[in-house]
Design goal:
binds 3-(2-carboxyethyl)benzoic acid; 19 strands; alpha+beta; 60s Ribosomal Protein L30, Chain: A
């Protein structure tokens, strides 16, 4: 299937009721990061399994320039408009464990994509609980990586999307995956300071993680994967959250340079995952040293996929319309 050429796509944070944001023209998806947010029945509203570290409960909004339609197919929900598609799916692990849940979720997602006009997978978020439980290769994140790679290989997906994989402390044994796709392909970017994740050496697990460091979107803009204090393939600044934050920002800047984007600004919403809630003030202060006050940011409690990592950042960088 072919679709319309993607038009403009934007991501922004808003403080407004969910329904108000869903009612805006071109609203593709609305994300809340607070269990207290009232549930909407609209499939475009997703309760992300991550909790914001501060009030107010800001919402993330994806918007496109055009009509949006939406629906549900069993456990998968989608919305599409103007060449873009949002998809979300959750699975309970109690039946077959993390690997079966992960393969189910990815099989559903990739099968849906194959049948969609917006068939190019650009960006994926993966949230699983107790991500660091299990010793060595039995660690849940490592098993997740193996299952994700099996499903992608089975579907012939060889060019990886940008991604985030973070632990949540919400509903136990619930795996949540949501994604962005488009009717035209993006352009994956790697970070010159980092080994590509899919080339990580054996010490990090039997299956290297399947993601690109960033994705240049069709029609412009950069979707940035979860970025931490990893240089080469090694974690740096163990037990020093400020130094890790500084290093993560240096990695982000290297990606921006690769993408020929000038700097983060009002059109660059970032999500900052902090392992220990008591580090939030330290992280906020460090961010203030690096980023203009106008750069939108949300701090979330999140467990990073290597136990020694304390902070990770993902986000977007859109250029001002000339
Ligand atoms: C890293 O650089 C940190 O498995 O999808 C970042 C982004 C990380 C995505 C994933 C993992 C993933 O390796 C971890």
């Amino acid at each position: 299937m072919t679709g319309v050429t993607p038009g403009p796509f934007r991501v922004a944070y808003h403080d407004a009721p969910v329904q108000t944001l869903l009612d805006k023209p071109g609203a593709l998806a609305v994300f809340s990061f607070s269990p207290a947010t009232p549930h909407a029945t609209d499939p475009r509203h997703l309760h992300v399994l991550q909790t914001a570290l501060a009030a107010p409960a800001t919402l993330e909004c994806w918007s496109v320039a055009g009509e949006v339609s939406h629906g549900r197919e069993d456990d998968l929900r989608w919305s599409r408009g103007a060449g873009w598609q949002f998809m979300a799916i959750e699975a309970d692990e109690s039946a077959g464990g993390i690997e079966a849940a992960c393969e189910h979720v990815y099989d559903r997602l990739l099968a849906h994509l194959d049948a969609s006009p917006e068939r190019h997978l650009l960006r994926v978020w993966n949230y699983l609980d107790t991500i660091n439980s299990g010793e060595g290769d039995a660690e849940r994140y490592r098993r997740f990586c193996s299952a994700r790679a099996r499903s992608m290989a089975a579907h012939g997906l060889v060019r990886f999307p940008a991604a985030t994989a973070i632990g949540h402390r919400g509903t136990p044994r619930r795996l949540q995956v949501y994604a962005l796709s488009a009717s035209a392909d993006g352009h994956a970017l790697e970070n010159p300071r980092q080994v590509s994740a899919w080339e990580y050496p054996r010490q990090y697990g039997p299956t290297a993680p399947s993601f690109a460091r960033a994705m240049l979107l069709p029609q412009g803009g950069l979707a940035i994967s979860g970025t931490a204090a990893v240089i080469g393939h090694a974690s740096h600044h163990v037990e020093d959250v400020t130094a890790q934050l500084d290093e993560a920002v240096a990695n982000l800047r290297a990606l921006l340079e690769r993408a020929a984007l000038p700097a983060f600004d009002t059109l660059s919403p970032l999500k900052v995952y902090v392992r220990h809630p008591e580090d939030a003030a330290t992280v906020r202060a460090a961010l203030a040293r690096h980023l203009d006050a106008s750069v939108p940011r949300i701090l979330l409690q999140g467990d990073i996929c290597r136990t020694e990592l304390l902070v990770e950042i993902d986000g977007w960088c859109f250029e001002n319309a000339a």
